[in-house]
Amino acid sequence: MAGGKKIRPSLVVLSSEAVGGTAEVALKTAAAVELIHTFSLIHDDIMDKDEMRRGKPSVHVLWENQWQYLLVTHYSPRHLKLCSKHQ
Predict the structure, then answer these.
(1) DSSP 13-69
(2) d(CA 79, CA 74)
(3) What's the pLDDT tens digit per position in 51-75?
(4) How far, in Å, are 11, 23, 33, 58, 76 from residue 19 at the CA level?
(5) pTM above 0.70?
(6) Residue 58, φ and ψ in degrees, nearest 5
(7) Could you tell me which of 85, 4, 87, 86 has the C-alpha nearest to residue 41?
(8) How many CB atoms lie within 10 A of CB 79?
């Protein structure tokens, strides 16, 4: 697992705690942040037509573009909605 997958969620939880929130409340938002980041990488690969990401085939190369378009269309609004539910 890449280091960012630990750092980003940790920063969300620590930020929540720094302003009086709890880790429990911040966990869904931390997960959503990680999903949004993953979505942005997939979307970037589609737009740039990159065939490799960190030395491995991109999602659209593995599963063809049609699946990737469905994935980003389906998940992007859901992640943003999840983040907006927590203050």
Answers:
(1) HHHHHHTT--HHHHHHHHHHHHHHHHHHHHHHHHHHT--EETTEE-HHHHHHHHHHH
(2) 10
(3) 888 888 887 787 776 665 666 666 6
(4) 12, 11, 18, 38, 27
(5) no
(6) -65, 160
(7) 4
(8) 19
User: In 3D, which of 9, 69, 4, 63 has the Cα closest to residue 39?
Assistant: 69
**At 86, is the secondary structure helix, strand, or coil?**
coil
At position 80, the amino acid (one-letter code) is L
CA distance 29 to 81: 10
Structural tokens at position 19: 């302003």
Q: What does the angle CA 58 – CA 50 – CA 77 come to, to the nearest 5 degrees?
A: 70
